[in-house]
Amino acid sequence: MDILYTVTKYLASPIENFMILYFLVKYLxxxxxxxxxxxxxxxxxxxxxLIAQFTGTFYRSDVILPIVAIIVLWIYCRWALNGGAMLQMxxxxxxxxxxxxxxxxxxxxxxxxxxxxxxALLTSDxxxxxxxxxxxxxxxxxxxxxxxRVMKRSRLNLRKREWITFLIVFLVSxxxxxxxxxxxxxxxxxxxxxxxxxxxxxxxxxxxxYIYHSILSLSQENQDILHMELTELKCKELERQLFxxxxxxxxxxxxxxxxxxxxxxxxxxxxxxxxxxxxxxxKKVSDFYLQQSTASxxxxxxxxxxxxxxxxxxxxxxxxxxxIKVAGDTSTLDGVDTSIVLFNLLDNAIDANxxxxxxxxxxxxxxxxxxxxxxxxxPINESVLKKNPQLLSTKxxxxxxxxxxxx
Length: 407
Hints:
The protein has helices spanning about 1-30, 35-50, 60-80, 85-115, 120, 125-150, 160-185, 190-270, 275-290, 300-315, 335-355, 385, 405; strands at about 320-325, 360-370, 370-375. The two termini are about 65 Å apart. Strands 1-2-3 form a three-stranded mixed sheet, with helices on one face. A hairpin with a 2-residue loop joins strand 2 and strand 3 (about 370-375). Helix 7 (about 160-185) packs antiparallel against helix 8. The relative contact order is 0.06. It contains 13 helices and three strands, in the order H-H-H-H-H-H-H-H-H-H-E-H-E-E-H-H. The chain is elongated. The mean pLDDT is about 80.
């Protein structure tokens, strides 16, 4: 029995730490598939397991060492896992709070049931402790699965002030529960205190459950608010795009009307045999319309032409070379839907060119069987996939971007 107890005792801590790592990886996921990040996780488990061996060797080690483990775990998350700093800190606190609550509740309940002190229970080499080790780890795994299932259903979306508030509450809850456990362990003969501590512990568990529920509810409310703001911005963006399309259409209509007048004028000059005047007049008209638009009548879809016309004007304004190639029958494309796609692609390409000296954009549209392919290319100063592999928005107020995906 001594050998079995010793093996179980030494396996309990690494198993617990591997479950903590499992929870974080399952919820946050690795930033990439580098083997070094997975090896780092194993090293973390070994390091935290070694830290746990010093529990009880100095004053308040029961509180200090878990906090050190949480900080080390958070540093690992920043290096290897996805998610923001606040979300990662919340995920680091969560398993440690669960471990503290499960262990404390189980120890107190078993000690009261068998009418022995917690200190005597923890120092006894018996099958009872083996079963307690097994039960607490099974409960931890079950709770991890429940929390993963609940948290995975909704992406947490909290403001910085709300993150800080919840993290402080979790820290206070963790310290309170640990202090409560130490108080009961240091007063093993006071049954009344043990019972009161158990009631307080149940209250802490209920409060923690309520806090997690509040986080999910508040996150959903923030998500709804953000979606409403994005929808409002989307409507404004669509209004802007439709205005540009309408403005481009009006200019093309005016150009066609003027073009007829120019032809009539040229015809009159030819009849009067004023050839030098006709040559000079035609050159001025040609230069004027080439300057006005490089996209006019480039395809057989009037709405798409208007979009390309509008964006061509913007490119000319900022000195961006725009090369457009269209092949295939564009008349079958929905003008409004395709225009929204083109607006977003070309707007992003124009924004990217603002930081370049060599400014250019190429747009290729061609039909392939039943599909239409659209390719937009522009120069970059550095590799986006290398610097920002998750393709997160780098714009100001990035939380309110993403209109292209919504559209």
